[in-house]
Amino acid sequence: MNDKYNIDEIPPVFLEILKNRGLEERGEIVKFLFPKLADLPKPDAMLGMAEAVDLIFEYLVAEEPIIVWGDYDVDGTTGTALLVNFFSSIGKEIDWHIPNRLDEGYGLNIDWFRKNGKYNAKQDFLLITVDCGISDAEVINQIVQMGGRIIVTDHHSLPKISLPDCIILNPSQENCGFHGKYLAGVGVAFYLAAGVRAKVLSAGGINETAQEINLKQFLAFVALGTIADLVHLSPTNRILVKGGIEVLKITQFPGIAALLHSCDIQDGNVGSEDIGFLLGPLINAAGRVGDSETVVKLLTTAFAPEAGKLAKKLVRLNNKRKSICINDMEESLDILNVNQVLEDRCVILAGDIHQGVAGIVASRLVDTFGVPVIVLGVKPGKTGETTLLTGSARSVEGVSIVKAINQCSEFLLKYGGHDMAAGLTMSEVNFIDFRQKIQSVLAAMMDAKPVVPANRNDFYCPVADLMSEKYLAFLQLLEPFGPGNELPVFKDNNAKIVNSKRVGRTSEHLQIALRGKYSNYKGIGFGLGKHRDEIQQNPERTIRYTPTKNRFRGTTSWQIRIIDI
């Protein structure tokens, strides 16, 4: 299927989906289905890009030290790996650091620079942040006093206090040519690399191989970070991610290849669901348990055997993360009073919760209760120090969690994020006052949020039609899915269930088989085990569903994910 695909051949249900997304004209549809890298905005449209590129070029020519400091989540680690690999490709080996989530916390910290022999004396060095730094004005001033010069690349909302006094690349700035394009942190890093490459090519004299560098190969990192960080899929991000998914299939980076192999993705056919539910959590797991440097080592190694070992280590860390998460989720549900949650219209929870899984617990509580959630754990500190609470916030559509937290900033030591997710740290003594104010703020925002129509994304399509080769091929043309281009939900009013059973630790899930034209289709319904008895009595059902890939031992098959039955 290519851009000459006859629009008359598009199945009606997909025309309906495209129309639902504001796409009716042929030109718009072609542009959406077949985005082109040539349509990307140019790097020099980004505020601060010219100054940042000139400064980096100055350090390249002088052969002075450059260090990249990235966030510990998947967006920050992929962005850091992108820049390390890019600079290596033009002949510059740079330093990098990912802070330990449990010991150092989010963002820049001056102690690391003071303890590091290479940077603790007054000397000339360049610091480039990735996916962090916009809220670190005080630390940045201290680093400048140590002799450092700084470029902040970030995408998080601008703080209420003053911005750092340095070169800033952040599309959140209203006077930035990328404002409203919703780049991820790794997307900003990619554009910085593109700007530097253009400068190196025009100036010459640094590395003769720069001309041969294909920037598209680095889009693999952009796809991973953008999808996993749940960034809005604006037209620009759609082009970047679509291109990234294409090169994931043929990646030249041993670490990415090992990562795909560890998730049983061996056919090269990667989708946004694979990134969101397999690759992203695996990458994030390292940071959650305080070992995110393993990710950057994996994504920057040039040796396949080392990549294989590091990927296996990530799998072990992810298993550790899963165990912690199950325990903390169960403890959180034990603490909460459902009636109180419904009355408060939010969850503000502090307790003995591992910092690394606070975000996952918050997300699952959002799914359970449908309200904004803030989950905080005690941050270990030295004896005699003030006890700190640090954790994560997750929200529901229509309620900006970072704007809510911004209204309570007087109680916080550090915070940052975007509409749907944020991180924050406070002194324990401020928790009660913070909780009281944030509950009031969130209640008002929940009252004002737009009403979302029920089943707004439901499109009628019998399972047997949608599971055909033609329909599945077209569904994949709608990729990538995520905020701004949600995975469509389909409805079949006459689905015939020929087999069903409860599965899961507590039989909470439902495994089924659906009658098809030539064979039955396997299906899974998470949290739907309670419906098994009624299905046995009445197997003909109306279902809400979406196709999903099932990967097992190197083979891929399509199955049905039942959303409601």
Summarize it:
The chain is of the alpha/beta class and 565 residues long.
Features:
20 helices, Diaminopimelate Epimerase, Chain A, domain 1, 5-stranded mixed β-sheet, 5-stranded parallel β-sheet, globular, 565 residues, alpha/beta, 3 domains, 41% helix, inorganic pyrophosphatase (n-terminal core), OB fold (Dihydrolipoamide Acetyltransferase, E2P)
Level-2 CATH architecture of the largest domain: Alpha-Beta Complex
Strand residue content: 15-25%
- The overall strand count is 16
Residue-averaged pLDDT, rounded? Answer: 89
CA radius of gyration: 24 Å
CATH topology (level 3) name of the largest domain: inorganic pyrophosphatase (n-terminal core)
Description of the molecule:
- This protein is α/β, with parallel strands linked by helices.
- It folds into 3 domains: 43-315, inorganic pyrophosphatase (n-terminal core); 336-448, Diaminopimelate Epimerase, Chain A, domain 1; 455-564, Beta Barrel (OB fold (Dihydrolipoamide Acetyltransferase, E2P)), CATH 2.40.50.460.
- It is 41% helix and 19% strand.
- It is built from 20 helices and 16 strands.
- The chain has helices at residues 12-20, 26-33, 49-62, 74-89, 110-115, 137-145, 185-203, 219-228, 235-248, 254-262, 272-288, 293-300, 304-335, 338-344, 358-369, 401-406, 431-448, 463-466, 469-477, 532-537, and strands at 66-70, 95-97, 125-130, 148-153, 167-169, 347-351, 373-379, 388-394, 414-417, 421-427, 458-460, 489-503, 509-514, 521-525, 540-552, 555-564.
- A 5-stranded parallel sheet has the order 2-1-3-4-5, with helices on both faces. Strands 6-7-8-10-9 form a 5-stranded mixed sheet. Strands 12-13-14-16-15 form a 5-stranded mixed barrel.
- A hairpin with a 2-residue loop joins strand 15 and strand 16 (555-564).
- Helix 8 (219-228) packs across helix 9.
- The longest helix is centred in the middle third of the chain and has 32 residues, at 304-335.
- The radius of gyration is 24 Å and the shape is globular.
- The two termini are 33 Å apart.
- 42% of the residues are buried.
- The mean pLDDT is 89.
